[in-house]
Design brief:
This protein is mainly α. It has helices at about 5-25, 55-70, 80-100, 105-110, 120-130, 150-155.
Length: about 180
C-alpha cells in the first residue's frame, strides 16, 4: 500500500468514525431509515437497521480499529464482519475523497511520495478482503442469506452474517484487545 493511499484511507476512516458516533448520539436506538437523516448507518445492509445504540457504537469503533491499523503502519485487515463492512465503506469514501479532492486532500499529502499505483482501489479490494460475501447482504433477492442455517448460505459457504455476530472475530484472525476503549 502506498503512503498516499494509506493516508486517504486513514482520513476516510476517521471521518466515517466521527459520523458513525454522531449517528449514535443523534439517533440512539431508533431504527435506521432511508430518509437521509443518517450519516453512516443507512449505508449498512438493511439487516442491521434495527440494531440498538450499543451495537452501532461497536460498529463505529470498527472504523477506529481500522484507522488504528493504518496509523500503526499496518494494513487495515478486517477481523470481523463489522470491520469488513467498515473497510468497504472506507474504500468507497477514500476513492470519492481523492476523486473530489476533499478539503484539499491532495495538497495535504503533497509531501508524501507519489507512486504509479497510488489509489488503485480495485487491487486494494482484491488484497484487503478474504472475500466479498458481506456485499450479498445488500441484495433483496438474497434476503436471509446472512443465516448460516439456510441452504443458500451453506451452498455458497458464506458463514455467519446475522447482525448479532458482526463483532465475532474471523477464525483466521487474532482477536482485538477486548478492553480497547471507545473514542467517544
Amino acid at each position: 500500500m502506498t503512503p498516499r493511499t494509506a493516508a486517504a484511507l486513514w482520513t476516510a476512516a476517521g471521518v466515517l468514525a466521527d459520523q458513525a458516533y454522531d449517528d449514535v448520539l443523534e439517533h440512539g436506538d431508533e431504527p435506521v431509515d432511508d430518509t437521509g437523516t443518517w450519516s453512516v448507518f443507512d449505508e449498512f445492509p438493511r439487516i442491521t437497521w434495527r440494531q440498538n445504540a450499543v451495537w452501532r457504537r461497536q460498529a463505529a469503533r470498527s472504523f477506529d480499529d481500522l484507522s488504528g491499523d493504518l496509523a500503526a503502519g499496518n494494513w487495515p485487515e478486517p477481523h470481523c464482519p463489522a470491520e469488513e463492512m467498515a473497510l468497504h465503506l472506507i474504500l468507497r469514501s477514500a476513492e470519492a475523497a481523492v476523486d473530489d479532492d476533499w478539503a484539499g486532500l491532495t495538497e495535504r499529502y503533497a509531501d508524501l511520495p507519489e507512486h504509479d499505483d497510488d489509489h488503485d482501489w480495485d487491487t486494494l479490494t482484491d488484497t484487503l478482503f478474504q472475500d466479498t460475501d458481506i456485499l450479498a447482504l445488500f441484495s433483496k433477492q438474497l434476503d436471509g442469506i446472512e443465516d448460516p442455517d439456510t441452504d443458500q448460505n451453506r451452498e455458497l459457504g458464506i458463514g455467519e452474517y446475522r447482525a448479532q455476530a458482526w463483532f465475532e472475530r474471523f477464525l483466521n484472525m487474532e482477536p482485538r484487545d477486548p478492553r480497547r476503549p471507545f473514542r467517544r
